[in-house]
Amino acid sequence: MNDLDDILARLRAQMDLDAETEHEVLAEIRDHLEEAVAQARARGVDEATALAQAAARFGLEEEVGRALQAAHAGWGTADAVIAAGLPVVCALVLRWLTFAPDGTALGWPQLLSRPAFWIVALAALLIPLLRFERWRYALVTWAVFWGLTVVFATLPALRW
Amino acid sequence: MTVQEQMRKGTTTVILLHLLADMDRPMYGYEIIQELEARSQGAFHFKEGLIYPRLHELERQGLLRAEWRGEEGRRRRKFYTITEAGRRRLERELQGWRTLTEQVNRLLGVEAGL
Question: What predicted TM-score, i.e. pTM, was given to this entire model?
C-alpha cells in the first residue's frame, strides 16, 4: 500500500530541480492527493483504499515526475544566466556613470544624487524580483550588484 | 496511442486555457480536473498527475499566472489564472481547431455537427 510520503518520494526521485521549485511542486501534488483522499473518505472509503484510488488516478509517479522535470527543464539555466548576468551588466552601466569624462570617479554624494543611479539600482532589484518572483534571488542579485559597484568605484586599478 | 489519446494530448493546452477563461476566476489543479471531468461527463478521463506539468509549462510561457494562497503551515494552494497573453493564445488555438476540424471532416466526408 502506498503511503502519501512514499508517492511523493518516488515523484521526487525523478526530478532534479532547485530546492524551492521542488518544494513548491511537491506541495502542490501533496495538496492534490490529500484532497482526493479527503473526498473519498467523505464517501465512506477507508483511508488505505482512498489513497490507493487517488494514487491510481494520479498516474505513475515515474511518468509524472519525468514530465514535471521536462516542464521545468531550462528554468534553472535561464534563471542562473539572468541572476549572474544582470548585476554585472548593471554594475558596468553604473561604472560608466561613476566616472567623469576625464576618468576620475565621481564622489558617492554626487553618484547617489543622480536619478540614473537609482534607476539602475532599482532595475537590479526589481528585474530578478519580478522575473523569479522570489525575493531571495532578488536580494542576492542586488547584493552582487552593490558589491561590484563598490569595487568599481573604490579600486583605481579597475577604472579603465 | 489511439487517435483519441493523441488528440486529447494535443488539445490539453486549449482545453485548460478555455476552462480558465470560461470560469474567469483562479482555480487550483484538483479543482480544474474535477471541473473538466464534470464538463466532459466522464469522457475526459486522464492521468490527473499529468495536468501539472502542462499547467507549469503554460505558467512558464506566461499564458497562466500562478499564485499561492493560504497561510504558511496551513493548507496552501496554487491557483492559476489565465493571462491576457493566454486569452490571445486561446483565440488563435480555437481558430486553428475550427479550421482543422473542418478540413478533417471534409476529408473524412463527415458533416459538421454529427
Answer: 0.69
Same domain, A102 and A50: no
**ipTM of the assembly?**
0.82
User: How many whole angstroms separate alpha carbon A58 and alpha carbon A123?
Assistant: 42
Give the count of Cβ contacts less than 8 A between chain A and B: 63
Shared domain check, A42 and A114: no
β-pairing, B77-82 with B64-69? Answer: antiparallel
Decide if B30 contacts B99 (C-beta within 8 A). Answer: no
- Classified by CATH at the fold level, domain B3-108 comes out as Arc Repressor Mutant, subunit A (1.10.10)
Per residue in A69-90, pLDDT (tens digit) is 988 876 666 667 777 788 888 8
Domain edge (last residue) among A13, A40, A72: A72
Dist CA A80 CA B86 (whole Å): 26
Interface of A with B in 63-92 (CB under 8 A): 63-64, 67-68, 70-72, 75
B76 contact A CB<8A: yes
